[in-house]
Each structure stands twice: as structure tokens, then as C-alpha cells.
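Reply to dn_fold:

You asked what the input looked like. This is it:
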Amino acid sequence: MILVDTVLRRRAAQQRPIRVGMIGAGFMGRGLANQIVNSVPGMRLAAVSNRTLAHAERVYTEVGAAPLVADSARQIDAAIRTHKPVIVQDAFELLAAEQLDCVVDVTGAVEFGAHITVTAIDRRLPIVTMNAELDATVGPLLAHRARAAGVVFSGADGDQPGVQANLLRFVQGLGVTPLVAGNVKGLQDPYRTPTTQRGFAERWGQDARMVTSFADGTKVSFEQAVVANAFGFTVGRRGMYGRDHTGHIDALTDAYDVDELRALGGVVDYVVGARPGPGVYVLGVHDDPRQRHYLELYKLGKGPLYSFYAPYHLCHFEVPTTVARAVDFADATIAAAEGPRVAVVATAKRDLRAGHTLDGLGGYDTFGVAETQLAAAAAKLLPMGIAEGCVLETDVPKDAVLTYDQVRVPPGRLVDRLLAEQEKLFA
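and this is what came back:
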């Protein structure tokens, strides 16, 4: 964003960089660290936390830095004051440090992510999350808490929800009413497992379970739920329309029923195989015939739907933009506006037997499917974000959506308490 780069250059000239703490040191965290250190003047990766300390150290050594090791918030603050990079095993010591301006969650873990997000909000420390799984599950409550505390809780630029949010805001600024926010995928197979995805994961140095969640549709369901909850959209049907479409994104203007879209108030969706990809798209209408004349002149067609798209999403490359927006402008890239509109529900990948403990995201047991919040609540469907660790009390056939009545939820989890609070708040 043009305004953000100007502000960051000013910060660099004034030698007062935004001091970022990062929690998580996996594939995405290492890329983000490289980006901040080598390509973002006016921003500093001040501290990194990871439960495996060697992984946090690797983040810095890969960019040519030798970090100090801290055990406490006091030691972290001392290192930051002397401009020395620092690593710590305990994320909550990092969150207690006073010398940070923002923290970024790159863990992808729902329960742990819930703990660190709640702590950051209570501490009134802006938090940028790359944890769509958490955001789609209890993001509406977390966004509500953040607004009440006067702090920013935000999804990230670069992730598809953030790219869609930027495009939606741009389209709305033109006077166009968006009716579809979509995600372009290259593959969708709900029965993929860590075994089928191991080769791809090894080639790119990624976690096989995370890669599986991309391939089996769970990730896109979470991402589109985040968009729906931020912009008041819904799904046209359980699982979204999810068409195979190998043509150009512009041709999607003929694939939707505009009257249906208007009646629904806008939908989130995805397509498989569209060009250009992978990216995102927004389809919208303009109610002013004079402006429609100009849109046709500018080669957007005759309507009624007009196509806008971004042909890429650059994940960690764009996260620093969200950090700057949060710190200097109190502007969230994407956050739930009100209560949840779309939920992601757990669906059986295979026949499951009573007594089995579900393995969760990107595993062998379940995949996530987007459903309206109203339908999910009415049928007591099990949210995918809390499925891990649940014990089945009945047999569940392949392709069936699980319900709360069929499982025993692990005791004592924060995410379950947050979900109950969210349901009560937005009832």
C-alpha cells in the first residue's frame, strides 16, 4: 500500500522502527523473518518465540543474525533496548515484554493461538494473525474483544482473506456493490491425507498436515468463512458452489444468478483451475446506469456483474503491510464485523468408529466444509476448529458431517469457552 511504504520510510529515517514479535518459527515464519529483516525499512524483527528454541534460532541465523536467548520478559526488553535480536521459548514471556509494538501469530494452532491472542488483546498489544483456523472459529468474539479494548486484531495482507478484503474495499470505493468474494484454487480433493501430500510437503519444506489442509478444502473453507464474517456474506450452499472453471476469471460473471446473490446479500465461494491463478476475485454490480456506461467503456463488460481480481497472493511478503496498518493507522486488514455468518464444520473423510480420537486439521479423519452459522447451530454441527482431540461416541460414516451429540469434547480448552461465549454474545 502506497501510504504504508511512505510511513515506513519515515520511520526508518527517524530510526524508530516498528518492533515486531513473532510467535512461531515454521516455514511461513522463516519467510516473514527474511522479509522484515531484508526488505522492510522502518520495521524490525525484535523477538521470536517458539516452543522448540532451535527453530527460533534458525529464523535469525538464516538471515545472518545471532540472537540472544532470553528466559523472561525483562531479558527480552533489555535485548530490544540494545537493538539485539532475541529468542525465547515461552510465548507468554514475549507477550509480556513492553518493548514490542505488535505481535504476529504464525502458529496455525487453534488452542495455542487462542491463548496468545487473548493474552495480546488483554495486554492491549496489536496482534496480526495468520491463523485462519482460529479466526474462522472464534474470530468474531476476538474482534469484538479487541474493539472493546481499543486494540487491533487483524488477519494478514497476503493471505487470501486479506487480499480479498483489500479488493472488496477497493470495489466498494468505486460504488460497486460486491456480491461474490472468491478464492482461486488449483486442487480440491477432500480425501487427501498426509500420506498423499508427503512428497509435495517435502519438496517445499512444509508440514504435511498443513499441506493436506490446503488440498482437502479445509483451508479454503476457513479462509472464506473469515471473509464472510468480515463482510456479512454467506454461502450459497453447504461447501460453497465450488465450481471447476478452467477459463478466465472474467467468465465467472455468467456463472452466477444475480437475483439469488442479491437475495442472499452476497456470498463467498471458490473455483478450481481458473486463470489467472492462484488469486482471488470479486464480482459486483453497479446500480447507476450512467456509471455502468463508463464501466463498459473501460472494458469491464455490459454487466450486470463486473469482475475484479488479483492474480496472486504473496502470503508472508505482504504481512509487514498489515503490521504497519495496525500500529500506525489502527486499521485491520480483515476482522469480523459482527457475529459469525459462516461456520466451518467437520466432515468425515472415512468411516469412523466409536471410541476413536479425531486427529484434526490436515489429518486422516476429517475435512472442513463451510456452512451457514444458522444451519450449523440449528443442527449442532461440530466446528472443524475444535474437532481435534474429540472422542467419537458413535460410528460416523464417510462424508457425514459430525455433530456435538456424536463426540466427547476434551475438557478444559480455552477455545471451547470462547466459542460458548461467542454463541451467547451473538445469539
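DSSP finds 16 helices and 16 strands in the chain.
Hope that clears it up.
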